[in-house]
Design a protein that fits this description.
It holds the Pfam family UvrD-helicase. This protein has 26 helices and 24 strands. It has about 750 residues and is of the alpha/beta class. Bound molecules: adenosine-5'-triphosphate and magnesium ion. Adenosine-5'-triphosphate binds next to helix 3.
Length: about 750
């Protein structure tokens, strides 16, 4: 017992050992919220207040739930595999699998990721002849997800005009389409579970009495439906333990509602509101920076953070002239950290938007530094992997039209647009899936389509007794995918990714506790369901679901939902010590010895879409707060004067956030001198020349190009009028300047010829 609790401060200890009532732990970053939550689970189990199966714990990411399970295993001598610890989506997936009949779903229902969802909507719009200029698929998707996140079905959404009524109609049709195809999107996982539990009293009461303790991490980012879901699962008797930080609420764009914190306090009659104010993660300068920055936000619940760790290193700030230089600078700094003994996995490079990672990845790759990207294009989202998954989906559920359309003519089988139209017409006419409609297509088209369905059936037949990895291997060959990429010029990478799928299946089967020989297609009924049937007092029989996937679905179904829910990270070989690249959003909850926050430029961070409203800027500021507080010992901030993004060069001002940090915590680094002053011709593009600097805070203004012109300077040109210099390349006779002439646009001018005047 002592063991579990001896590493806690008095407030943490109080939180961990609270009586079984609902409680809210409101505390800033790095104060030990997640540690408290995990320790509480262990303490509750160790003291016999609850059995492992009586705990429901919700984490924000799959990674976080894995970590929590690992920490629990280290603290307690129990098997954590069957515990209900996961994300909202993951937990709902399990509940729906276990109770698919009651939920009105086929056992092999499949999960649409957002990419699949968008294409399903596009397909619907096309079938309904909807004008996609007026109703763009993406907007329809936002509409649908927004409604679902609030817990509303189409008939519950109020629409006051024809335009909105059309959205509602499309929502309804989309739901019907999904139902017909046996697929559910992410928001549906939650809504379906919510509806199932609201409607089905015995089931609801069963789970309510089972989950005596419900614990939620990152509570500030729950949306309306998740909150309602929690309320329903808790019923009258469960104790809900919520931990969160209003300053880290960064998912408003996905419907997160920070107001849930005060609603929770009120509705769950929280008597215990505990604040944790000691930060254990970051050194003083880093923490001061975070505190000073977030003080600029107006809507806060208010709390403080202090540290005993001492000031530590100052926060280092670097200005560069281009994103390429930024990447180069990061690499140099990271290398010297590594030389000093830092682990690569303890160094994180954060960015506001995924598009920024490419340049950094390229530089890391060229320098032979192993790295791992979280988010971005993930393994299961790669085109070739998606194709392979689509074959597997079809083998599991013939009526998944999205999967059907993805691979019916991939690799090419001579199935043209006309044949597909014919097929779609037939499917619509009889209200059946594309697969089922194949026999209704006649002629040559019918023959080719028939060959495709035979292929799928043959693959199912040949693999039905085989374990998952072998099934995957056979599918890769039979489908023709391997052959296809073998003949493609740049197919080697893709083949490697496809081969990885076999490894991924092997790993998955063993991690999730399926027997190595368990047939991929057969559900748990065939392999003795572990969760026994329970007859409730009123004679209703339910299967009491274990959280273990192997007891509620077949290896194939489980693997496919894993592919949709996890998307997978696959950049570095597992176990390799690699630099960590991710967006600020996905860094939530994590910590690293050293953190680089890159691209701190107006328009990028804070993001341009946020700047219309003050609440938008406040959300960006919280995002910056999250980013800063990931760092334990070293924090680096960088901004670049120019940046290529989405194929365009942008010319940027440095982020306003620099002005919101405390001067005494910062150290502005000088741009590096890259060449000798008299070595004009050997000079790389846009090199810096040193000049004495006046104040540390305006380095940009104190460094000059050798041409006599400065970036940021206003100039006049005979033909183009007034403009501002945004970049200077070369030197001496080769000096050229990029100048923004407003309505005349951006010009690249030779400075020896252009006859510019200063204004
Ligand atoms: P975030 O808001 O970023 O999610 P958090 O509040 O969940 O942060 P944790 O991740 O639980 O914070 O803890 C931050 C770090 O401090 C971890 O490394 C944790 O192990 C450590 N820590 C927490 N409490 C203590 C303690 N009492 N003594 C020593 N270290 C602690
Ligand atoms: Mg945490």
């Amino acid at each position: 017992m002592q063991n579990l609790l001896h590493n806690l401060n008095p407030e943490q200890l109080a939180a961990v050992t609270l009586p079984a009532q609902s409680a809210l732990i409101l505390a800033g970053a790095g104060s030990g919220k997640t540690r408290v939550l995990t320790t509480r689970i262990a303490w509750l189990i160790q003291t016999g207040q609850v059995s492992p199966s009586g705990v429901l714990a919700v984490t924000f990411t799959n990674k976080a739930s894995k970590e929590m399970l690992a920490r629990l295993s280290a603290m307690l001598p129990i098997n954590t595999r069957g515990m209900w610890i996961g994300t909202f989506h993951g937990l709902c997936n399990r509940l729906l699998r276990a109770h698919h009949k009651d939920a009105g779903l086929p056992q092999t229902f499949q999960i649409l990721d957002s990419q699949d969802q968008l294409s399903a909507i596009k397909r619907l719009l096309k079938a309904m002849n909807v004008d996609d200029e007026k109703y763009p698929a993406r907007n329809v998707m936002y509409f649908i997800n927004g409604a679902k996140d609030q817990g509303l079905r189409a008939h519950e959404v109020e629409a006051n005009d024809d335009y909105n009524r059309k959205f509602v109609e499309l929502y309804d049709l989309y739901d019907q389409q999904c139902q017909r195809e046996g697929v559910v999107d992410f928001a549906e996982l939650l809504l379906r579970t919510y509806e199932l539990m609201s409607r089905n009293q015995p089931l609801r009461e069963h789970y309510q009495s089972r989950f005596k303790h419900i614990l939620v991490d990152e509570f500030q980012d729950t949306n309306d439906l998740q909150y309602k879901w929690l309320k329903l699962m808790a019923g009258q008797h469960s104790a809900v333990f919520a931990v969160g930080d209003d300053d880290q609420s960064i998912y408003a764009f996905r419907g997160a509602n920070v107001g849930n914190m005060s609603a929770f306090e009120r509705e769950f009659k929280v008597e215990n509101l505990i604040k944790l104010e000691q930060n254990y993660r970051s050194h003083g300068h880093i923490l001061d920076s975070a505190n000073t920055l977030i003080a600029n936000n107006s809507k806060r619940l208010g709390k403080n953070l202090r540290t005993d760790a001492g000031h530590g290193e100052p926060v280092r700030i670097q200005e560069v002239s281009s994103d390429l230089q930024e990447a180069q600078w990061i690499i140099e700094e990271a290398k010297s950290l590594i030389n000093e003994g830092a682990l690569r996995s303890e160094i994180a490079i954060l960015y506001r938007s995924n598009a920024q990672s490419r340049v950094i990845e390229h530089a890391l790759f060229s320098n032979g530094i192993p790295y791992k990207v979280y988010g971005g294009q993930r393994y299961f989202e790669r085109a070739e992997v998606k194709h392979a998954i689509a074959y597997l989906q079809l083998m599991d559920n013939l009526h998944n039209d999205s999967a059907f359309l993805r691979v019916v003519n991939f690799p090419t089988r001579g199935i043209g647009a006309r044949s597909l139209e014919q097929l779609q017409d037939a499917a619509r006419q009889y209200g059946i899936s594309l697969y089922a409609a194949v026999p209704f297509v006649t002629g040559k088209a019918g023959a080719v389509l028939g060959a495709f369905t035979k292929l799928i059936e043959a693959a199912r037949f040949e693999t039905q007794q085989l374990p998952l990895p072998e099934m995957v291997q056979i599918m890769l060959d039979m489908s023709g995918l391997m052959e296809h990429y073998r003949t493609e010029k740049e197919g080697a990478d893709r083949i490697e990714n496809l081969e990885q799928l076999v490894n991924a299946a092997t790993l998955f089967v063993s991690e999730e506790g399926f027997g190595a020989d368990a047939p991929a297609l057969l559900g748990p009924q065939a392999s003795a369901m572990a969760g026994a049937a329970i007859t409730l007092a009123d004679g209703v029989e339910i299967i009491d679901a274990d959280a273990q996937l192997s007891t509620i679905m077949s290896p194939l179904s489980a693997f496919l939902s894993h592919a949709s829910l996890e998307a997978g990270d696959n950049q570095a070989k597992t176990g390799q010590d690699a630099l960590q690249l991710m967006t600020v959003h996905s860094s939530k909850g994590l910590e690293f010895d050293a953190v680089f926050i890159t691209g701190l430029e107006e328009g990028l961070f804070p993001h341009e879409n946020s700047q219309q409203e003050e609440s938008g800027v406040e959300e960006e500021r919280r995002l910056m707060y999250v980013a800063i507080t990931r760092a334990k010992k070293r924090l680096y901030l960088s901004f670049s004067q120019t940046r290529m993004l989405h194929g365009q060069t942008r010319y940027n001002m440095r982020s306003r956030f620099f002005d919101e940090l405390p001067d005494e915590a910062l150290k502005w680094l000088s741009p590096k001198i890259q060449v000798q002053k008299n070595d004009w011709f050997a000079r790389p593009k846009a090199a810096w020349v040193d000049e004495p600097q006046a104040g540390a805070n305006n380095i940009a203004k104190n460094f000059k190009r050798d041409s006599g012109w400065r970036i940021g300077e206003n100039v006049a040109h005979q033909k183009f009028g007034e403009g501002v210099i945004v970049n200077i390349e070369g030197g001496g006779d080769n000096a050229r300047a990029q100048i923004n002439f407003g309505k005349h646009g951006m010009k690249l001018l030779d400075l020896t010829v252009a006859k510019l005047e200063k204004v």
